[in-house]
Design brief:
The complex is a heterodimer of chains A (517) and B (241).
Chain A: H1 2-14, E1 35-42, H2 47-63, E2 67-74, H3 77-88, E3 96-99, H4 101-107, H5 118-122, H6 145-149, E4 152-153, E5 156-157, E6 160-161, E7 163-164, E8 167-172, H7 173-178, H8 189-198, E9 219-221, H9 224-234, H10 251-265, E10 269-271, H11 278-283, E11 289-293, E12 319-323, E13 334-335, E14 340-343, H12 349-361, H13 365-372, E15 378-379, H14 382-386, H15 388-395, H16 406-417, E16 422-423, H17 431-450, H18 457-470, H19 491-516
Parallel strand pairs in A: 1-2, 1-3, 9-10, 9-11, 13-16
Antiparallel strand pairs in A: 3-14, 4-5, 6-14, 7-15, 8-11, 8-12
Chain B: H1 2-21, H2 38-43, E1 49-63, E2 66-72, E3 77-84, H3 87-92, E4 97-108, E5 111-125, E6 131-132, E7 149-158, E8 167-168, E9 180-186, E10 189-195, H4 205-211, E11 218-224, E12 234-240
Parallel strand pairs in B: 6-7
Antiparallel strand pairs in B: 1-2, 1-4, 2-3, 4-5, 7-9, 7-11, 8-9, 9-10, 11-12
The chains are: A alpha/beta (517), B alpha+beta (241).
């Protein structure tokens, strides 16, 4: 009997491991209650962005005095992801969180951890453009449809887009022309590789002819995962299927890596992870093609308002903002990226509703336009994109080197002109690991050739095997993929196992006792 | 009984003295077979394999079986970035621990480091005393001491922006828990120093000491001579004078 009671009590204790109950939309928002919500936000190490978040919170709290928003700032998505994963197990996730859909797919392996938003979108009172909103909310049809579609996982919306960006190639046009080339209308990989190799010509003392310095890395890519993903897309080659089948390790990938290896070996090409930020080299006249996010545009160019290098190292040159290199200039392809916002489930449905009210507020014009103007971002709503204030901002490109910094506005325009040429990769549990794997192929290949290794079929066979293993891409299904350690058993599971052991001992003890009786 | 007590006390004192002997002294570390001296390491080309014996001075972080560690021997310092390391081994990397490291010499934004490294723990201990490099600030010689545990004396805290003595993150875009950036000057030249939050988080004395700095304070500091597009020391202690 004691064993039964003990088991029952432990099993009751395990109930929590099933997770929270699914969120149910309350009838009405309780304006008499006090709600404190946390918002984990990402900024691009940009003080203005921080100030915009703070202003948005201040304005929102004036509209909803019973909702208090605590802001926690991050400067990279990876840290947010790691902290969310850590906090899921202790039910201490934030309420509202800037994130990537790839990351949400991992969060969804927990039960009712992230709130599906379709019901909230459609709610007539508090949904998108809802009648009971205390501010002028956006209608669903106001959100740019491709951006909203990026937030769908398993046919449900789990996020709202917050800002969108793509990658751009920031080019030192002055040096390209000094080398005797003219920039084409659309950059091609062949052009970039050719000019990069030409830029390596040096004098007998090791000074590069194009810049007169001892350092020149003609082509630097910030995010090599994007590099490989975009190259494969442009080649119409495999990366991942919509259902999560991994197609990355294919012959086209081999060919691409062989090409990259050649330029890595000559040191015409390097990466952020190997060398440092492309912007630092570009602005010092030590790089000609710097690929980085349009959300990094304020760091690019002679007159960049943000810089990590001292003024005396900056050289004068003309910056061209171009799409990333293409294989088929008639059919350009570039990644769509940028922050989205998700909402975490809580035991109190009113708290979740308060979170939703805040998340929606981030799509209002004041927030959208102000934030988009901090970098080469685009607002995600038609309302904001078409607003007179935003159009005026775009039209004033180059008026100064701060708000109207030419390179930044050109970067925004680049995306605006290419929305139809953007794509996203399939999202599934493990897609974040696959993305890391794609970048790892490039990073490892370049490092290897710099260290004198030969990149041939045998090398690539081993690389594919190593990367597959490192990111656990070989564990049967995509859903099982992921580099993260699963960690120790949860306490509830340990308690259950111990209890089962105790029960068996008691049963055996009882049997022995009965036998002797 | 007295004999036993005397024997025990003698043994204890001997052990204690042996333990103290390593700290602050020259390691006197003969390099093992196949191990580079610091001079050989410094002369090695970038992207080549290096093998060094060195001593842990401080740990920055561990994540997914990778550790970032500040190390030094009696001749120079080695920054080990993302070295392969299990969580249990990371616990063993206490200050002074001698390790043999095999990896590749690399440079990132001016910081020379060893990457893609593995290590094994060896017998021996050494903790470096801080080298006063105040007079080397602004000189070409300073970089020769990159990554060493160093000290700076009698520097003046300058405005980091809008009258503040420090900023969360480089431009003030961060919040409590992020890296702290502060400016200090000597002889009319101003330098940016950092409290690296992975090395010294917001529960540490140095983090809170920097948060309490006032523009105009005179300070002595210790830390590691890290580099990011120029000198960017990772400060581990601050004393307001």
């Amino acid at each position: 009997m004691a064993a039964i009671i003990m088991t029952a009590s432990f099993l009751t204790g395990c109930h929590g491991s099933k997770g929270l109950a699914a969120f149910q939309m309350p009838e009405t928002f309780d304006a008499s209650g006090e709600y404190e919500i946390t918002f984990w936000a990402k900024n691009d190490t940009n003080k203005t962005q921080t100030e915009i978040y703070e202003q948005a919170i201040t304005d929102f709290e004036q509209i909803y005095p019973n909702i208090h928003v605590n802001l926690r700032l991050y400067t990279n998505y990876g840290d947010i992801y790691n902290d969310v994963i850590t906090n899921i197990s202790t039910n201490t996730t934030p309420n509202v969180c800037i994130t990537y859909p790839d990351h949400i797919a991992t969060y969804l392996t927990g039960v009712n951890v992230v709130v599906p938003l379709d019901t909230l979108f459609a709610d007539e009172r508090y949904g998108l453009g809802g009648s009971q909103l205390a501010y002028d909310g956006v209608n669903r049809e106001d959100i740019i449809e491709p951006f909203l579609e990026e937030c769908v996982i398993d046919e449900q919306h789990y996020a709202l887009p917050f800002m969108r960006s793509t990658e751009a190639c920031y080019v030192n046009r002055t040096y390209v022309e000094k080398l005797g080339y003219t920039l084409p209308e659309t950059l091609t990989w062949d052009f970039v590789w050719e000019v990069s190799e030409a830029a390596l010509a040096a004098d007998a003392d090791g000074n590069y002819l194009v810049n007169g310095q001892t350092v020149m890395i003609p082509f630097i890519y910030k995010s090599t995962d994007n590099m490989m993903i975009q190259m494969l897309k442009q080649k119409n080659a495999g990366y991942a299927s919509e259902t999560g089948d991994i197609l990355l390790f294919n012959d086209t990938t081999r060919q691409l890596l062989a090409t990259i290896a050649g330029h890595g070996q000559s040191k015409a090409f390097s990466t952020f992870k190997i060398s440092s930020y492309p912007a630092n080299f570009l602005n010092a006249g030590q790089c000609i093609f710097a690929v980085d996010s349009t959300a990094g545009a304020t760091w690019m160019g002679t007159d960049a308002p943000l810089s990590d290098i001292s003024e005396d190292k900056v050289v004068d040159f003309e910056t061209a903002v171009m799409t990333v290199p293409q294989f088929d200039t008639e059919n350009p392809q570039m990644i769509s990226q940028g922050p989205s916002v998700c909402i975490f489930n809580k035991a109190d449905a009113q708290e979740v509703l308060a979170s939703w009210l805040f998340a929606q507020y981030l799509l209002t014009n004041d927030v959208q336009i102000a934030y988009a103007e901090t970098e080469g971002y685009l607002p995600v709503t038609k309302q904001a994109q078409n607003a007179a204030a935003y159009q005026d901002y775009l039209s004033r490109s180059g008026e100064d080197n701060n708000l109207y910094y030419e390179v930044k506005i050109q970067a925004s325009r680049l995306l605006l002109d290419n929305i139809d040429n953007t794509f996203v990769t399939p999202v599934f549990n493990g897609s974040a690991s696959l993305r890391d794997a794609a970048g790892q192929l490039v990073e490892t290949t370049v490092k290897s050739v710099r260290r004198g290794e030969t990149v041939d079929d045998a090398y690539l066979d081993q690389l594919f095997a190593d990367v597959t293993s490192l990111y656990r891409l070989d564990q049967g299904s995509a859903a099982a993929a992921g580099k993260a350690d699963l960690g120790p058993l949860p306490q509830t599971a340990k308690r259950l196992l111990i209890t089962l052991g105790v029960v068996w001992v008691l049963i055996l003890g009882f049997a022995v006792w009965e036998h002797r009786k | 009984m007295k004999k036993y007590l005397a024997l025990i006390l003698t043994a204890a004192m001997t052990l204690a003295l042996a333990g103290c002997g390593a700290e602050g002294e020259s390691a006197g570390d003969e390099k093992s077979e196949g191990v580079m001296t610091y001079e050989e390491y410094a002369a090695a080309e970038l992207e080549t394999e290096v093998v060094v014996e060195t001593y842990v001075q401080a740990k920055q972080s561990w994540w997914e079986d990778k550790a970032t560690v500040y190390t030094q021997d009696k001749d120079g310092a080695y920054f080990l970035y993302d070295m392969a390391c299990s969580e249990s081994d990371y616990e063993k990397l206490t200050p002074g621990t001698k390790i043999k490291v095999t990896g590749y010499k690399s440079e990132w934004a001016g910081e020379v480091e060893i990457i893609d490294a593995t290590f094994e723990i060896e017998d021996g201990s050494y903790i470096a005393e801080a080298m006063d490099v105040t007079d080397l600030l602004g000189s070409d010689e300073l970089i020769d001491h990159q990554n060493k545990f160093v000290s700076f004396k009698d520097m003046t805290v300058e405005d980091a922006g809008d009258g503040a003595a420090f900023l969360y993150s480089w431009d003030g875009s961060g919040s409590d828990g992020d890296d702290l950036y502060f400016n200090v000057s000597k002889d009319g030249q101003t330098y940016t120093f950092t409290v690296e939050s992975y090395l010294c988080d917001n529960t540490t004395e140095v983090y809170n000491a920097v948060k309490n700095l006032q523009v105009g304070d005179t300070v002595d500091m210790e830390g590691f001579l890290y580099w990011y597009e120029g000198v960017n020391p990772h400060i581990t202690s601050v004393t307001v004078k």
